[in-house]
Amino acid sequence: xxxxxxxxxxxxxxxxxxxxxxxxxxxxxxxxxxxxxxxxxxxxxxxxxxxxxxxxxxxxxxxxxxxxxxxxxxxxxxxxxxxxxxxxxxxxxxxxxxxxxxxxxxxxxxxxxxxxxxxxxxxxxxxxxxxxxxxxxxxxxxxxxxxxxxxxxxxxxxxxxxxxxxxxxxxxxxxxx
Amino acid sequence: xxxxxxxxxxxxxxxxxxxxxxxxxxxxxxxxxxxxxxxxxxxxxxxxxxxxxxxxxxxxxxxxxxxxxxxxxxxxxxxxxxxxxxxxxxxxxxxxxxxxxxxxxxxxxxxxxxxxxxxxxxxxxxxxxxxxxxxxxxxxxxxxxxxxxxxxxxxxxxxxxxxxxxxxxxxxxxxxxxxxxxxxxxxxxx
Lengths: 177, 190
Known about the structure:
The structure holds two protein chains of two kinds.
Chain A: H1 2-15, H2 26-36, H3 42-54, H4 62-100, H5 107-133, H6 137-152, H7 158-173
Chain B: H1 15-28, H2 34-45, H3 51-63, H4 68-111, H5 115-143, H6 147-161, H7 167-181
């Protein structure tokens, strides 16, 4: 029960930090799951996060994985509800209000201001994620190639990401990296 | 651009149909980029929304906390079928991925320590990082307009990564400065 409460607290808190996407919450996700509660190691969390990028639907369904690791199916359910309910309610009510605010003078200011901050938070998340993922030159090269492919083409991201996994298998087989 | 360019919108769907369409999108939007799938499904295929409304709802989704995919499900569901529509659209969008990632947790418990799965997952993490950076650059090219915006981006990231400022404090602090920087100026009558 204590664990379910912890899960509910952690993920409802993280929920409110996802300005600009799930990556904005990544630094706190790491701090809480790895350092504060010791639910998993950083590489394990990184694995779930990355698998979550491949799963269909919203890209943070990995919160269900963390919940399940900590407390089984109830843990997964609590993590999902906690992660999606607070911002869901906020979006529901502000969404209705926002339409009426279309002429409010501060609205463009909020939109532009929060836009820049959210890019900054995603950058912070990407740097922290990069420290775990880019353990040597090979992975720096893989990340850079995936970036260029997705930036230059309309390729479905699932293909280069799965290909990166195959590079991982190959590197393991060849005993490099 | 005349009205005849855009086909008329379809009738509002039943709750069951709404749930089904979001469930299918939730199950098939592989590899991220859910927004693209949403536009194809809602604007092109079902014609429940026009492009102007879609972009308007998307800009709300991107400004508010929460993931774009779930925020869009809530806003679109609410527009089409009110509160129940919002709930069912969100459930449809989330259930397939949630089931898969819960299953992944159990599979990881069985095979996660295997060096081959570790090698595979480590590769995926590097690839996912490439994806995150693309998403960030796309987000940035849309919202960053002046030099000050880039300063705010770097200051926010440096505060969180370099100075271990917690995300909510960085969000509130940098957010207040950034909103103030973009505050409405000039003639009050404009």
